[in-house]
Amino acid sequence: MKLENYEVHLPSYSIGDHIYDKIGPVCESYGKTVLLIGGRRALKAAEEKIRTYVAKTNLEIIGVERYGSDCTYETVEKLRQLPVYHKADMVFGVGGGKALDTVKCLCITDDKPVFTFPTIASNCAACTSVSIMYNEDGTFLKPNFFVRPAMHAFIDTEIIAKAPAQYMWAGIGDTYAKYYEATISSRGEQLEHFTSLGVALSVMCRNPLLEYGAKALEDHKKGLCTYDVEQVVLAIVVTTGIASIFLTKDFTPDYNSGLAHAIFYALTSYPVIEEKHLHGEVVGFGVLFALLVDQQYEEFEKIYTLNQQLQLPTSLEQIEITEEQWEESMDRIPEMSDIRHYPYKVTKEMLALAMKQLKEQEGGRLINE
User: What residues bind glycerol, as annotated (predicted)?
Assistant: First the structure.
């Protein structure tokens, strides 16, 4: 079968504790005037450092704008109406996932050069070619895909190390999920070249976290910018972003999700999840079920141990979900779109058995005994 024509644009990035010195060499060829758009806390953390390095270049910052609170089409349109946006040759997006997704949706749609400056390590928005769009009431709307990612990502590990450690903590759970979901959802299939690359690459969404995750989080809590922190930041921000680009194409099955995400989205029916828990935190819990359902008991032991080390959830109580709510969710999870492309049908019985095994693990009995 002949595949239709396609193109792939991969992200470029710089990483380090003084990496903003690359702003001039990377950005000057795109023009002169710069508009900063970001979140309130992100701008407070990074604006002064960005200005210090921009002052050494031929660039000029002509404005600073807060992006808003959610990545919505309405927010994008408000920013598009700003006169300073039209005067700027390029935009620097500063912040977390929603801020970076907002500036990507604004600029890539308009074909205006945009550069990302992530200030936390909770997701891969700095390197992806998609924006996760929300409704005005804060509920999820849809992903908005682009042909290319931002022109370049400037990943300053010193700024990230000083951010609240909970973001990296949750980012770890969301990142190792990529490996398990990609390998399970693609199992037994003849894969296209780009999908094969994505699946092969996804192992680097798991291995560095098993090796460096516990030490990196410990260092991050102390505000230290160490080798371990850098390796985990690379896994969360860069590797996951590249893998996502390869694993998601409009004309092929989506290998970018799976049971862990199906569990997360099913549990968002209960307000406590959105109000008190982070996406990657709950996804990391869902990975335990994905591995039990898939009977990958050795991998389950690895992730269960890692979750314990990092204090990521290993029980319903830790995400404040009751037994009754879990019972209700087991009816919804098998119908979630995240597992429509799975090598087998996930059933309520599989989920119930996985919960039984998880409780046995909590009680000290090894699953694969």
Answer: 174, 261, 279
- Enumerate the domain spans of the chain: 13-161, 179-362
* CATH number for the domain running over 179-362: 1.20.1090.10
Q: How confident is the model at residue 3 (pLDDT cuts 50, 70, 90)?
A: low
What 3-state class would DSSP assign to 14? strand
Q: From 313, 317, 335, select the one nearest 326 (Cα to Cα).
A: 317
Q: Which residues are annotated as a binding site for NAD(+)?
A: 97-101, 119-122, 128, 134
Quote the longest CA-to-CA distance of the chain.
66
Q: For 3, which DSSP code?
A: P
* Separation CA 177–CA 205 (nearest Å): 8
Banded model confidence at residue 368, pLDDT cuts 50, 70, 90: low
- Whether 264 and 280 have beta carbons less than 8 Å apart is answered as no
- Both tokens of 205, joined, read 């969404």
| Strand residues in the chain grouped as ranges (E) | 13-16, 33-38, 60-66, 90-95, 114-118, 130-134, 140-145, 152-156
Q: What integer pLDDT is reported at residue 2 of this predicted model?
A: 61
Report helix, strand or coil for 308: helix
The residues, ordered by sequence, that sit 6+ positions from 18 with a Cβ below 8 Å of its Cβ are: 156, 158
**Binding region for glycerol:** 174, 261, 279
Tokens of 144: 């908005």
Feature table: binding site: 97-101, 119-122, 128, 134, 174, 261, 279
- Give the rounded percent of residues in the chain with a pLDDT score beyond 90: 84
pLDDT 10s digits, 21-50? 999 999 999 999 999 999 999 999 999 999
With contact defined as beta carbons under 8 Å apart, do 237 and 153 qualify? yes
Q: Report the 10 Å Cβ neighbour count for 363.
A: 7
**13-161 has CATH 3.30.1490.20 classification:** no
Give pLDDT tens digits for 85-123: 999 999 999 999 999 999 999 999 999 999 999 999 999
